[in-house]
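Re: the 214-residue chain
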Amino acid sequence: MFLLRLIIPDRPGSLGTVATALGEVNADIHAIEIVEHRRENGTAVDDIVVDLPPGVLPDRLVSACNSVDDVEVIWFSRYGAGGGLHMDLEAVEQMTSAPADAIDILVEQSPAVLHADWAALLDGTGSEVKVALETSATPEFGDVAGRWIPMEKASTLEAPEHKGLSESVLVAAPLESGQRILVIGRRGGPEFLGSEVARLSYLASLAVTIRATA
């Protein structure tokens, strides 16, 4: 399974042309998500999850997309999060079904929701900042865990020169207070877009609201 992030012309037929090109290399499209409309230049950013049959080199996916006029591949990698895209609603459904665990569920689901590799809940409400919850593959934070606390609003973060963290692009959002934040990382990119930061902010606020109903 592979994830392609593309810039394509924001006009009817563009996505269909890309799908046709991918079909010519026997790629099976599992899901497509419009990540962002860039109305200022008439383009859109799309994520496409595809599967390849045995014996087909992954590089052919990039070549197929680049063969389409005005299409640019800005990121390409194996996709290990499992499932498909459009994970926001599934995360919300899980949170509403178990309100007391809403924040834990958001931490667990956020890598799949944002096509990332890991997530960690940092808690600075005590005498020192600690990792209260983390998903698999989360790197060690060490003494840099408190550098982003307190946090006022969801935003991208500059990765510190720290083993493991320096390889990731980061985004974070405060939860019940600016002393508890959810940090999400993608190893190697791409950078988190403004629309993704907004989605995370919305989901974080929703998780806090849902938990309050428990």
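The beta strands are 2-9, 28-38, 43-51, 72-78, 118-123, 130-134, 155-157, 168-174, 180-187.
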